[in-house]
Amino acid sequence: MSDQARAPQPSPAPGSPRPDRRPLVRLEGVQKHFGALHVLRDIDLTIAEGEVVVVIGPSGSGKSTLCRTVNRLETIDAGRITIEGQDLPAEGKALARLRADVGMVFQSFNLFAHKTVKENVTLGPTKVRGVSAADAGRRADELLARVGLADQGAKYPAQLSGGQQQRVAIARALAMDPKVMLFDEPTSALDPEMINEVLDVMTSLAKEGMTMVVVTHEMGFARRAADRVVFMADGRILEDTDPETFFTAPRHDRAKDFLSKIL
Ligand code: ADP
Ligand code: MG
């Protein structure tokens, strides 16, 4: 987010994005079951351009499923998900483009083990976006520098630390010029000393105005970088408010209980 965007503004109603921002991702009445398990219950969530929304909640509450529905790694049973007002495409090239528009960074870095770091970053743009190898290579160098990995491009993922691999995963997602980045517990698999190097990259992305949905237990990051905190439990969004309100005056007992365990 730019400094200008951080300038004081009238507060929006809790649970909605700031009125001066264009809605980018919208979930309306979304329902999802896995067999008998109702994992997403009537989810309404609008994410505006440039917003950073941190999603927290107990394990099993549906956070990963929520992320996965937005790039259609999971289908939904009812409701509607739109990106810039367009329904998610069901298949084919349009679906591949959607996946490129929605960058995803997982807990397990999911890099291609038999490709170099740089190849990991250039593969998507050349295959899906039709970018030339030369342009993709230049962009990969820029992005690797931006995540603090200049000069690491020729290595293979296994030669890097977990924190470095996750930063490659971020560079790889950014190489597609996504409209929104989803992070699903990006630091949960990392040794403690590597967590900050990943959070620092995410914080600078947030400052630069990237639209981000971040599932995390890192409450310092939530306080520092989030415009909104969404608290989920049992497939429902129970709170959707600014970080200050969430951390100082959570309304639901489930949220109070959760915070008492992790803070
Ligand atoms: P969270 O990310 O908040 O921990 P998830 O979205 O991963 O929660 O999971 C929500 C619930 O759905 C959990 O009970 C989980 O076991 C279940 N679940 C997730 N994925 C599947 C699946 N592919 N098939 C069946 N159940 C699933
Ligand atoms: Mg999860």
TrEMBL record:
<dbReference type="InterPro" id="IPR030679">
    <property type="entry name" value="ABC_ATPase_HisP-typ"/>
</dbReference>
<dbReference type="GO" id="GO:0005524">
    <property type="term" value="F:ATP binding"/>
</dbReference>
<keyword id="KW-0029">Amino-acid transport</keyword>
<keyword id="KW-1003">Cell membrane</keyword>
<dbReference type="InterPro" id="IPR003439">
    <property type="entry name" value="ABC_transporter-like_ATP-bd"/>
</dbReference>
<keyword id="KW-0813">Transport</keyword>
<protein>
    <submittedName>
        <fullName>Amino acid ABC transporter ATP-binding protein</fullName>
    </submittedName>
</protein>
<dbReference type="InterPro" id="IPR050086">
    <property type="entry name" value="MetN_ABC_transporter-like"/>
</dbReference>
<dbReference type="Pfam" id="PF00005">
    <property type="entry name" value="ABC_tran"/>
</dbReference>
<comment type="similarity">
    <text>Belongs to the ABC transporter superfamily.</text>
</comment>
<keyword id="KW-0067">ATP-binding</keyword>
<feature type="domain" description="ABC transporter">
    <location>
        <begin position="25"/>
        <end position="259"/>
    </location>
</feature>
<feature type="region of interest" description="Disordered">
    <location>
        <begin position="1"/>
        <end position="22"/>
    </location>
</feature>
<dbReference type="InterPro" id="IPR017871">
    <property type="entry name" value="ABC_transporter-like_CS"/>
</dbReference>
<dbReference type="InterPro" id="IPR003593">
    <property type="entry name" value="AAA+_ATPase"/>
</dbReference>
<keyword id="KW-0547">Nucleotide-binding</keyword>
<keyword id="KW-0472">Membrane</keyword>
<dbReference type="InterPro" id="IPR027417">
    <property type="entry name" value="P-loop_NTPase"/>
</dbReference>
